Amino acid sequence: MKKIEERSDYELVQAYARGEREVFSTLLARHQQRVYCYIMSLVKEKSVADDIFQDTFIKVVNTLRSGTYHDEGKFIQWVMRIAHNLAVDYFRKNQKLKVVRSNDEVDVFDMVDNFEESIESNIIKDQTQKDIRFLIKQLPEEQRRVLIMRHYADMSFKEIADKTGVSINTALGRMRYALINMRKLAEENSLALSM
């Protein structure tokens, strides 16, 4: 039988659902840094990030215990979605409080500015994602496959090497060339991406 640390997220989630509560600490240790850094990048405030991080994992535990979690993809993507939604909820509440505190006068311009900024940032984010998908499609198959496994399936280079039947160094090399080629393609297509 595999050691707890060697088991996949899927196996750990199944074990937790069967009542093996001790496996949760492994799931938490495996993903806490990535989740916390993501929350911190959104809220930029440690105390708020701490609260959202805690609420995220309380929600994860409650969902797993209730048996309503359906493994339709990667566990980490589901956790990140919860964290993202809680951060959005925080901003909504925070924005409402800001408006209420303005001495009974609603600061319409403040609300419009915030609304326009969020629309603009969503448009930029959507366009960037479309541009990235376009660039990924232009990559050679081997590079594209490694890039997708690394960034979208969250696989380690060892897992990628095992899955593709190549050495870890070859997987690393393909990833490196994928990023180099994406930068080159971005320049050729006049796309501004931060990579």
UniProtKB/TrEMBL annotation:
<feature type="domain" description="RNA polymerase sigma-70 region 2">
    <location>
        <begin position="27"/>
        <end position="96"/>
    </location>
</feature>
<keyword id="KW-0238">DNA-binding</keyword>
<dbReference type="InterPro" id="IPR013324">
    <property type="entry name" value="RNA_pol_sigma_r3/r4-like"/>
</dbReference>
<dbReference type="GO" id="GO:0006352">
    <property type="term" value="P:DNA-templated transcription initiation"/>
</dbReference>
<keyword id="KW-0731">Sigma factor</keyword>
<keyword id="KW-0805">Transcription regulation</keyword>
<dbReference type="InterPro" id="IPR013325">
    <property type="entry name" value="RNA_pol_sigma_r2"/>
</dbReference>
<dbReference type="InterPro" id="IPR036388">
    <property type="entry name" value="WH-like_DNA-bd_sf"/>
</dbReference>
<feature type="domain" description="RNA polymerase sigma factor 70 region 4 type 2">
    <location>
        <begin position="131"/>
        <end position="170"/>
    </location>
</feature>
<dbReference type="InterPro" id="IPR013249">
    <property type="entry name" value="RNA_pol_sigma70_r4_t2"/>
</dbReference>
<dbReference type="InterPro" id="IPR007627">
    <property type="entry name" value="RNA_pol_sigma70_r2"/>
</dbReference>
<dbReference type="InterPro" id="IPR039425">
    <property type="entry name" value="RNA_pol_sigma-70-like"/>
</dbReference>
<protein>
    <submittedName>
        <fullName>Sigma-70 family RNA polymerase sigma factor</fullName>
    </submittedName>
</protein>
<dbReference type="InterPro" id="IPR014284">
    <property type="entry name" value="RNA_pol_sigma-70_dom"/>
</dbReference>
<dbReference type="Pfam" id="PF08281">
    <property type="entry name" value="Sigma70_r4_2"/>
</dbReference>
<dbReference type="Pfam" id="PF04542">
    <property type="entry name" value="Sigma70_r2"/>
</dbReference>
<dbReference type="GO" id="GO:0016987">
    <property type="term" value="F:sigma factor activity"/>
</dbReference>
<keyword id="KW-0804">Transcription</keyword>
<comment type="similarity">
    <text>Belongs to the sigma-70 factor family. ECF subfamily.</text>
</comment>
<dbReference type="GO" id="GO:0003677">
    <property type="term" value="F:DNA binding"/>
</dbReference>
